[in-house]
Amino acid sequence: MFVGGKVGRRATGITRRDIDGAKYHEAKYYGAKYHERPTWYLLSPLRCSLSQVPARRVQHEVEDRRGVRNGGGDWSFGAEPEPQILDYQTQQYKLLPQIATIFGIHFSARRVWDTYNEVTGNIHEGNLDLLPELHAISCGLKALSSSDASAGIEICRLACGGHGYLSSSNLPRIYTTTTAANTYEGENTVMWLQVARYIIKSYREARKGEKLCHSVSYLAAQPVSTHLSTNLSNEALVEAYKKAVSAIVSETAERLQKHCDQGEQFELAWNKCSVLLVKCAQAHTRYFTCEQFVENVESLELSEGVRNVLRRLCRLYLIYHISLNQGDFLRSQALSPENISTLEGEMCELLAVLRDDAVSLVDSFDIHDRILGSTLGCWDGNVYHRMFSEAQKSPMNQTDVPEAYSKYLRPLMKANL
Ligand SMILES: Cc1cc2nc3c(=O)[nH]c(=O)nc-3n(C[C@H](O)[C@H](O)[C@H](O)COP(=O)(O)OP(=O)(O)OC[C@H]3O[C@@H](n4cnc5c(N)ncnc54)[C@H](O)[C@@H]3O)c2cc1C
């Protein structure tokens, strides 16, 4: 078990002697899980993929404003310049939700820290009630952030076309470093099952009328039978999330109970439901990030300009994940097909509006070129110059014509065969 990290003593004033040893280690462990780290890895690929914007601008200048690409992909030569690659809606759909993900995880991690500080504070009074809550949100966010980051980096690599495959892009190294986070500090499937255990326990407590902790309190709510009709505000979408996740949890808990009622051992019954249990945990954690995103965007002290951009990003995050998991929302009648259709239309509009903020949002994290270590995405936008200089370093490129040509090929070509 990894114990330690920079958090703990300075933040809380607690020392090992203050509390029971095992619990101290447990609390420190959750504090030491760096939930955000994987998504921060996602920033570098985003810088690389967004570099295609200035890169294309450079290319376009070199090509002397040749023409404009039609919808079908043909070039018609005319007055209009080549569009920047980020003007393609499909490209916006690849990259903008990844930017939203970083902020979604960032705000959720703040909540984990708050809970961590509350738990370590309560431990002084011998109160460990919040420890299971901290364990569950910590495990869930670890698994969600590492899997989102891994998937997101691959999307960014694809967004760079063939350049994303260059080793000098640094994307292959960033990808392999990040995917390891799915395994270390708690293998993700095992993490999801830990979250599921907490959810099922909480669901059962709710049925007995017991009070639940904040992150699972929605499981105690009475199911609402009507569709959301026209209200598709952020708050209404978070409510829809609650309803959809409650339905998945309720169905899975009942299935688990059925196996137990048939006389199966709990662990065997658990294994027979584990695919659905993982799904419960994933849906619950996604809902948690959506809720935190909405709450933080409205409550943080921000300028109105920044808040408006973050509001749009938050909206994109909510709709993007609803659209991806629409089956869950439709099955639970949390949203109607018409609701989904309206939201998808709004998502396309949001992509176009957020397009102009993409580079600034990523630059706001201020990743230094040295950290990025990539020929793509450097601050000055000189992508092609850097790629050319990097290619020149290859032993194959030390002479204009490789030695092998004069040594083997040329004599062969000149010979009378
Ligand atoms: C890059 C890297 C760095 C590491 N650094 C360290 C380090 O510094 N210190 C350290 O101590 N360790 C380190 N590790 C080890 C790491 O913590 C373990 O690999 C990780 O916890 C997974 O354990 P495992 O390898 O035994 O896999 P297993 O637990 O055997 O998992 C194998 C497969 O079985 C599945 N599985 C396992 N249990 C269950 C279950 N109950 N239900 C369903 N499915 C299950 C998993 O999902 C996985 O697919 C590192 C690993 C990597 C990849």
UniProtKB/TrEMBL annotation:
<comment type="pathway">
    <text>Lipid metabolism; peroxisomal fatty acid beta-oxidation.</text>
</comment>
<dbReference type="GO" id="GO:0033540">
    <property type="term" value="P:fatty acid beta-oxidation using acyl-CoA oxidase"/>
</dbReference>
<dbReference type="GO" id="GO:0005777">
    <property type="term" value="C:peroxisome"/>
</dbReference>
<comment type="similarity">
    <text>Belongs to the acyl-CoA oxidase family.</text>
</comment>
<dbReference type="GO" id="GO:0005504">
    <property type="term" value="F:fatty acid binding"/>
</dbReference>
<keyword id="KW-0560">Oxidoreductase</keyword>
<feature type="domain" description="Acyl-CoA oxidase C-terminal">
    <location>
        <begin position="235"/>
        <end position="414"/>
    </location>
</feature>
<dbReference type="Pfam" id="PF22924">
    <property type="entry name" value="ACOX_C_alpha1"/>
</dbReference>
<protein>
    <submittedName>
        <fullName>Uncharacterized protein</fullName>
    </submittedName>
</protein>
<dbReference type="InterPro" id="IPR036250">
    <property type="entry name" value="AcylCo_DH-like_C"/>
</dbReference>
<dbReference type="InterPro" id="IPR012258">
    <property type="entry name" value="Acyl-CoA_oxidase"/>
</dbReference>
<keyword id="KW-0576">Peroxisome</keyword>
<dbReference type="GO" id="GO:0071949">
    <property type="term" value="F:FAD binding"/>
</dbReference>
<keyword id="KW-0276">Fatty acid metabolism</keyword>
<dbReference type="Pfam" id="PF01756">
    <property type="entry name" value="ACOX"/>
</dbReference>
<dbReference type="InterPro" id="IPR002655">
    <property type="entry name" value="Acyl-CoA_oxidase_C"/>
</dbReference>
<feature type="domain" description="Acyl-CoA oxidase C-alpha1">
    <location>
        <begin position="79"/>
        <end position="200"/>
    </location>
</feature>
<dbReference type="InterPro" id="IPR055060">
    <property type="entry name" value="ACOX_C_alpha1"/>
</dbReference>
<keyword id="KW-0443">Lipid metabolism</keyword>
<dbReference type="GO" id="GO:0003997">
    <property type="term" value="F:acyl-CoA oxidase activity"/>
</dbReference>
<dbReference type="GO" id="GO:0055088">
    <property type="term" value="P:lipid homeostasis"/>
</dbReference>
<keyword id="KW-0274">FAD</keyword>
<keyword id="KW-0285">Flavoprotein</keyword>
